[in-house]
Amino acid sequence: MPVEKTEVLVVGGGQAGIAASEHLGRAGVQHLVLERDRIAERWRSGRWDSLVANGPAWHDRFPGMEFAGNPDAFPGKEAVADYFAAYAAKIAAPVRCGVTVHSVQRLMGRPGFRAETSQGVIEANYVVAATGPFQRPVMPQIVPDTAEIMQIHSADYRNPAQLQAGAVLVVGAGSSGAQIADELNRAGRKVYLSVGPHGRPPRSYRGRDFCWWLGVLNKWDLEAPPTTDHVTIAVSGANGGQTVEFRRLAAEGLTLVGRAASFADGTLHFAPDLVQNVRRGDADYLSVLGEADAYVIRNGLKLPAEPQARLIAPDPACMTHPILSLNLAAAGVTSIVWATGYGLDYSWLQVAAFDEKNQPKHQRGVSAEPGVYFMGLPWQSRRGSAFIWGCWQDAKIVTDHILKLRSYLAYETARQPAAAGA
Ligand SMILES: Cc1cc2nc3c(=O)[nH]c(=O)nc-3n(C[C@H](O)[C@H](O)[C@H](O)COP(=O)(O)OP(=O)(O)OC[C@H]3O[C@@H](n4cnc5c(N)ncnc54)[C@H](O)[C@@H]3O)c2cc1C
Fold first, then answer.
1. Whose CA is nearest to atom 17 of ligand 1?
2. Same domain, 125 and 145
């Protein structure tokens, strides 16, 4: 059977794959996008039912198309998936759905790569890995499977009705954990929320969404995280968009606890770091307000002052008298939702593009293996890289590099006829 050939093989038809396709198409580079499910499948079936975008519609989009409806609203996950499907149609992206890439290896003795897919072999000169930044749910091994309690990762959480009756412990207070805990609390569940280190920018300040502030303050373009510790960001577009305020959640009935540390004899022990983590989140919040105020003064903007945004509510009882251990059965906890993030899984990409810890070895998406590129990685080139608008910009960097490499490789071909005639 003849082997199908393409110049660039893009693996994954989420936003990163569609962004890559747009830039490659504009540059006239022949390519093919393979998606194992449907376009933007993770937005459709890999998130909980009520999820809305973390950024408003005017912001969380590609430059070439706006969302229908109110630009200040936070589109639901289906609307986001529909947006990418419509975008792919608009740019006539060559996406082939329902095709899984099982492996990619370098060809031996000639340039290029060989992909084994669920629909046969494809050879390509370049490969763009756009399989997503959040591929493998990570659950710390704290509570053994033998403990009689339902444990799921936030990737598998869909809605409150899915969980057994009883109290719920949500571990992780990034955007996912904070939103899921809030939803469960509103649904009348008793909720414990384990809060680790986090940042929590204001949802809006002085009439502008935080996405706008981070944009004008050049913070989406930071090229490296401000600290080496991984600090999650708690933001939410749910319920029209509110600042994540852990004290307010506590006032609404939720019980805050520190980082989940260990488990023995049915009792979960928490680190004594709740107050420190919440205060650190406050400091992050207040620092954004401070930078925003300075920007307003420097630029003479007429944005309404918002002094009440600086008022931090008193510490709730769960902070003044933190719970350091919780016997789950005695507290009626029947489920744990681990909102503890994701890891990468590039087991299909069998090339020399990974370091000794199996992490992608790359600069701005250009991998250590010439001809192989990554898309959509967190901090791939900047803070915005794993987000909708950021991956679109990274796709340009990747495409430009493919064009550059292609021009070097064309040297040989261009010289050959002259050499033969000399
Ligand atoms: C809960 C949550 C909420 C988020 N909210 C926002 C938000 O509001 N705004 C924002 O900007 N960002 C948000 N993000 C971050 C980011 O935008 C999303 O994670 C987004 O889905 C990443 O897009 P991607 O194309 O890089 O990866 P994915 O959406 O994961 O797409 C990768 C695609 O590759 C396919 N694939 C994987 N392996 C193979 C294979 N071997 N062969 C063929 N196909 C394959 C998958 O089916 C998938 O469709 C959120 C992330 C999470 C987890």
1. 387
2. no
